[in-house]
Structure formats: structure tokens, C-alpha cells
Amino acid sequence: MNKKIPLKSIIDSVSNEKGISREIIFNAIKEAILFATKKKYKMLEVETQVDQETGIYKTYALYTVIDEIKISNPFKNITLIQAQKYNPDIKIGDTIKKEIDSIHFGRIDAQLARNIINKRVKNAEKELNLKDFNDNKLISGIVKKIIDDEIIIAINNDIYGSIKKSDLIPNESFKIGDKIKACIIKTNKNNQEFKLSRISNDMLSELLKLEIPEIKSESLEIKDIVREPGIKAKVSIKSNITNIDPIGACIGMKGKRIQNISNELYGEKIDIINWDQNLFKYIINIFFPIEIKKIEIDEKIRLINISVQKENLSKIIGKHGQNIKLITKLIKWNLNINEYLK
């Protein structure tokens, strides 16, 4: 009455190929066997039991014990008198099992079972993929749709993200079929929804980790990032290993590393700054190569007065005051820039 399938070889094969736990595959196979069994025994309540070690599966018809002499549904009910022939201690309302012939998988049943298993495996693959999608993670995808002010991006295995045009770098545009990188800023794994951005600081941080192995290995550490997306960014980098120069490592041979990142960010100019715990040294590093003639720090009101040569004032301030705004955000102190007078 029982049947046998090469369960272990099936589970091992699918698990090794898809990287999915054996338990998930085993449960999918059990579900497929039960589905095919119910298809055959349409009138009965059935249950299947599968031995994971041997691959042997048994099938039982389930009957509810009722207190009637004559039953109206012999496919689902059994009288107390009849049930007590199998088990003297059985009571009204209990369920009694009778082993019946297990199904043999014909071509159609085998295909139905295969479809169920494939569906469960696909869902498990998606769950596995979703574990990798967390806030601040950099993703790559393809533009699938553009709806009003939102772009829908296909990421991986039926996983999609969306990015508002306000979260794109100013003046950049994408069309359907374009490749795009973006950073996850909000996840809803239940609904498999991912909100993306290209203007967050994390976008630049993740690109730095991707392009610069010393940052990924934590030999170099990103201490702070400030951005004017698509225009300019400043990144403070600390070296955790004395013989690694943060600026040289980040810029790369012939500036290739930092240029690759800049190209991804629509030409955004990226300044790499050698972070220092000493505020005076850090200020000098931030303004390099401009020479600072004098630094005065008022800790009570968190004000830094900086004096430079007259010809350097416009360089420090930058176009539309952009450079000094980023420097102020980076230092997190109020700044007062003055012409140096002897």
C-alpha cells in the first residue's frame, strides 16, 4: 500500500543547485504528494506521511467518529460502534485513520507535483534573495517602467524597487532598458517593496566600498560624507593601517578609482580628505592645498576663525558658496573666513 520515491537524491540535487535548505524542499515534496493524493481521493479526507530517510510514503483516510447508527457521509464519518472495532478506547469526535493505497505518480500527477515543488522552490529563492536587501545596500537593476515621477527598477528574480525622480541626481535621466545603480533607503520585505535613492550619502559610501578594496577590508574607514549630489562631495577617510595613504588609495592609479565613482554619480566631483582626531590638523587637511595662515577656535560658541591670503577667499567659498557650505557641514562648527592681514 505504501510507495517509495528517491527522496534523498531529489532533495540533495535541488538543495545543492539552488542553495535552499533541505527542509524547505522536503516540505514542498510532501505538499506535492498530498495534493496529488487529494486529486485522486476527492471524496475522502486524506493524510500522507513521508519518511525523509527512506522516501517511503503512506496514505490514510481520515474519519470522524459520530454517535449515529446510520451515517449520512460514509466517506468522512464512522459510527462509534464501527470505530471501536479498531480502537476500543476511541470516543465521539475523535478521528480514526485507515491506511489506503498510496498514489502512483503517473505523467500528469508527476507534472502537477513538479509544478508545486518548482513554485515552492522559487518562493524560497525569493526569500533567500530578500535577506540580502537591507537599508543602505547598493543595488543594480534595469529600468522597467517610468510612471509619472517614479521609475520602476527590476533588481533580481521578480524583485523590484522604485525611485522617485526627486531621488535622482539633478539633470540626470533614464529610459526603459537602462542599467541603474541606487541605494535602498526603505525596505518593506513583506510587500517586497524597496524605495531607492541616488542622492543619499549611503549611495556614495557604498560606491566607495565597491570601488576601493581598502575600504571594504576596513583598512580605511569612512568617517563622514557631505554631498551636493551631482556637483560636489567631500569624504573624510581615516587610515586604520599606518602605511596606507587614504587619499592615494581612494584616488587610485591615474585617478581611475575616484573617476569611476564620479562617472556613476553624473560627474560629481569628490574630494577625499585625510581625517585627523586633532581639530587643527583636520582643518588644515580639509582646506588643502590652500594654505591656512591662521586658525582661532572658540569652543564656547563653536566658532572657528580662519585666515587665508586674499586670492584664496573665492576658492574656499566656491561657486554660489557651495564649497564653504560643504566644509561647514563636514566640520560641524561655525566658520568665519577672513583675509589674512599681517
From TrEMBL:
Record InterPro entries: KH_dom, KH_dom-like_a/b, KH_NusA_2nd, KH_sf_prok-type, NA-bd_OB-fold, NusA_N_sf, S1_domain, TF_NusA
Residue span, S1 motif domain: 136-199
Coiled-coil residues: none
Keywords assigned by UniProt, alphabetized: Cytoplasm, RNA-binding, Transcription, Transcription antitermination, Transcription regulation, Transcription termination
SMART domains (UniProt xref): KH, S1
SUPFAM superfamilies: Nucleic acid-binding proteins, Prokaryotic type KH domain (KH-domain type II), Transcription factor NusA, N-terminal domain
Transmembrane residue ranges: none
Cell location: Cytoplasm
One annotated GO molecular function: RNA binding
Primary location group: cytoplasm
Keyword presence, Flavoprotein: no
A GO cellular-component term linked to this record: cytosol
Gene Ontology BP annotations: DNA-templated transcription termination; transcription antitermination
Function: Participates in both transcription termination and antitermination.
HAMAP family, per database record: NusA_B
Summary of subunit composition and partner proteins: Monomer. Binds directly to the core enzyme of the DNA-dependent RNA polymerase and to nascent RNA.
Membership in a protein family: Belongs to the NusA family.
The name this protein goes by in its record: Transcription termination/antitermination protein NusA
Protein species of origin: Candidatus Azoamicus ciliaticola
Highest classification ranks of the organism: Bacteria, Pseudomonadati, Pseudomonadota, Gammaproteobacteria, Candidatus Azoamicaceae
Recorded name of the encoding gene: nusA
